Amino acid sequence: MTDWETLNKGKKINKAMKAYLERAKEHDEFMEKQQFEYKIGKRHLANMMGEDPETFTQKDVDRAIEYLFPSGIYDPAARPLMKPPEEVFPTRKAAEFDEAGRPFHFLFYTGSPNFYKLLYDIVENMQDLYRFDDKVRRKKAVPDPNASLNLDATLWVTKDHLEKLLVEKVSDLKYNNFIGAMDRLVALPYSYRHKEFIEKYRKSLSSQRFALEIPKPNYDENGRAYVTTYECLRKSARGVVTIRSPGTGKIIINGKDLTYFADIQPREQVLFPLIFTGMQNSVDVEATIEGGGYTGQSGAIRWGIAWGLRSFVDKDMLDKMHVAGLLTRDYRRRERKKPGQPGARKKSTWKKR
Amino acid sequence: MSSNYSGISITRTSLSRNPQVEGLIKKGAMKPDDRPLWFDIYRAFPPTDEPKFSRPKTENKPIKQIFYPEDVMRAKFHAQKLGIGTVNMLMSTGDTPTKKLLQKYDKLKAEGLSEDEIIQKCKELIENEKQQTLSKRKTDLKLKSVTAQILTEVNMKNIFDATSEKENEK
Amino acid sequence: MTRVGRRFSELDGQVCEHTMGCSAMFAHDIYPQHKDPLDHPDYFHVHNLFTVKDLFDARVHYGHKEGSLNEHMKPYLYGSRLGHLIFDLDITAEHLRKALNFAAHIAYRGGVIIFFNRNAQNAHLVEKTALECGEYAHTRFWQGGIFTNSTRQFGAVTRLPDLCIFLNTQNNILNQHTAVRDSAKMLIPTIGIVDTNCSPNIITYPVPGNDDTPVAIELYCKLFKAAILRGKEERKKFLQETE
Hints:
The complex is a heterotrimer of chains A (353), B (170) and C (243). Chain A is an alpha+beta fold and 353 residues long.
């Protein structure tokens, strides 16, 4: 038996590190081969397209592939592609330990070190705040009233986002623990002292519902404000709706008035957004519509009017319209007929024999 | 320098370990230079008892009950509901109420009083102390009360001046 | 208290029997000029890290109630005070010094040391200790197989710890921490603070003592940190010498 001191002089690389280095070498060799093949393929493509292989970029490759292998497959991911190997193959996990096999992270053995480090940091901050609180009380100082933490406009990051931040999988239970711990930190009186830390895990509550900008109305020669909504779609109907304000409640559909629709139902559909916002007498509506039946056409106009009215109503009404479903596009289309049955869902009468 | 790896599960049957490694080295299953890092230290400083799941049963000896001679007096005080109070374990400065009583007891005993007399005397002493602390607290409270504070702050002479000023404003 | 103090002050002068026995087996004789730390009964002077009074002040002597006593903990007891078990701190000190010495030696050899604790109240303290002495901590839910199936768990061959320090060996009040069993399976030595309701059987260096009170845990953390840092310091010197 050699003693430890002598063994240590040999400076053997740890088995874990050896295994990692072997894997890394294998991966590097594989990637080199792939890169070589990609370069050759690119030159071939350039020759086929009759272009200079030296200045053939990735954009040109994509164009060439689309031209040479036209594909009608719906999912773009399933179409033929030629991308650099770094984009196609997953990146190799970096070594988490040094040459002696000692992990870098002190919570490595928990399996999710980054997440537990985050919890550790939260507690660390909390304890710091407790100490600060004690200090303030001992000195009988008054806390800064202006430095409070305002979290009204933000939310905690979602689970997926947290996973991305930590580069780790986060289970539901762990996520709940994270939220609980963060809430406790925020509830402390001096939490503003760790504003930076807290805000790293907050996401602004920008209303995604109205992420689309509401257009400012244009003005015609008479000085009336107007907004035109193109592509008002419902079923197979397609139309353009223009709203003019101020107006008297005149509705013109394809050159006719509301009697363009013979039935009560489509007329109600067209009037609904105007009545809902209480603007049936203060705006004029002009719509040209084609395709589809009366349900589709009236639905398309209804959506177009609601969409155009956004420019003329206040924020409260906007929220109400959203809740009423006026701003939601109806994407339903006719369901196809199935073979072996008379309709999309309808089955022929069942007879025993 | 080598260590345990997940790949090498050296034992599954027994939970004691040093004999296992020594056996492996002896039989050639493990190279002596590949021995675990702790092996030499373990040999040099073996634990007091061999770590083994099936340890021999301990002697069935009754557990020693801890009593002190002053426990008799302590019990007598407690029976009179003396010396029972809360103890702050976070701030371990100062003696517990019982300990203070026992010190008093020793003092009085030296003076040659009998046990009953001592208990009686202690009772009176504690009553006195209680009264004193209560009255002291009351006066403290009085001083701290809101009206007292205001009275000390307010200038009695100017009270009427202030009201007259207000009236002038009206 | 005085008994232990005397015993450890004598240690410096004498050489233990077992150290003499094993040193002949190794190649120390080839390098007679190099002084082997293992020859010294207390190379890192861990005996001066604490006194029995420190243990007493940190309330290490408090055990649980008599009803929850584990039979194998009987030899470590001093007695029972009105139903509450009290540890013999002389015995505790002896075991603790042994454990500290072992930890320091492991740190000296560059071993991976991991701290365990399943008590939420003390978890942060333990993690902080681990961070401060550059070692590792696991105070969370124990996923089975971290030791026994580590290649799968971490997705690669992984070096396992060389020493596990349990600041409490129980998972909850009823069950033992699975890592105690797993480290025994994987031949990883363990140091464990065992209370009167815990089993010391498969722990290599059990330290009988209170494992609940924060003050006590604080003391253990401080001691283990000091011992490990002493070991690491010596290691630094050793590495500088060899280079």
